[in-house]
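Figure 2 data, in text form.
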Amino acid sequence: MFIFTIVMCVFYTVINAASSSSGTCNVPSDHQWLVRGLQSQLENCHGPQNKPDPSVLIALTMAKDRDITVITELVRQIKETAGTEMTSGKVALYVLALRSACENPADVITTEKHVNLVQVLEEKTKEEIKYIDTTGAPKTTYYQLALDTLALCLEKSPELETTANTLANAALNNSFQFDGNFSVDTGAVASLALFCVYERRNPSQQSKLKTALTLISKQILDEQQPSGILGNIYSTGLAMQALNVTSEFYSANAWSCQKTLNEVLNKIIEGAFNTPAAASQILPSLFGKTYLDVRALPCISKTITVHYRVINLLIEPYFSFSTTVKVPKDSVLLVVLEAAQQLSSKFSFQTEETSWGPMVTSINGLQGSTNEKTHWQFLSGVKPLEQGVGSYKPRHNEHIVATFSKY
């Protein structure tokens, strides 16, 4: 009996150790409300007055029960602001964000431009490496070079090998420092990037990457606090992503994913992630996702077709315009208008915010007037809509008409 008791104690010790070791971990069902609240916070933070944040889009595409309208609007904003004037790391985030939303970053088309963001990223990454070769440091930071490497790997760029080799050398030379201390954020993103490359290589080509990944994992774990926080609370989200994919490079008892997750949940209650930047960094880990998942996320495949027509027979010069667009199911009418504007240079519109939501004030430069008692009226077929463009959700094959009218 005594021997049996000892065996059972050992058995339960092993089970408990396994349950607290590294690997995937899950938010308990009675704490899911915290995740939903954080997701809602991110969904409500975007708007025309705010600059689009690609990290927010990435986080929301990894969430469950995604708000398609919010994601569609963020994609539109990111496309509109994509360009060559950004730093390499910003371009990399734009590439990752668009890819996470099932958009092609090598073919970004808006009404005003056509940009190949992958090509832009390749050129800017070359500049980073040239600076390292010349000065010993990147043009921006190693954090941005790590983002560059990750995006180039997911896009299967021919420029990847040189970039990955440079990043691995930087890791082995202990270059991921900030104010003299190891930067957990930089190490985490570098781990994700180098692991992406590691998975693509044959075993005979993995030696340097294996050494670099082992070293970075140790450095991240050396920054682990007794509570389970990795570095600080804001670096913990990225560090969780890195450690969850690189578990083969450290011992199983070196990190408890569930312990870290439980502390993160406590910090959510305390309001530690109230900013979009902080919330977007932690949300993927709460869904068990990493930036390596951006190419494997389910696409929004359910779309509807909406027939849209604009008519002005009230004030010269008269005009009419018709188009057919496809938008995600459950999109509001405003998304239809935005899709029509992207599709054709013949259509433009402006809105203003009201207490009832966005209101269309002009179409193709023709603006309503309180003095003349004119406005743009929206109809479904011949029936006036009772909701605004920010609330009404068109049905599949519905005919929406905007007519310039008197009231």
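Caption note: The chain has a mean pLDDT of 89.
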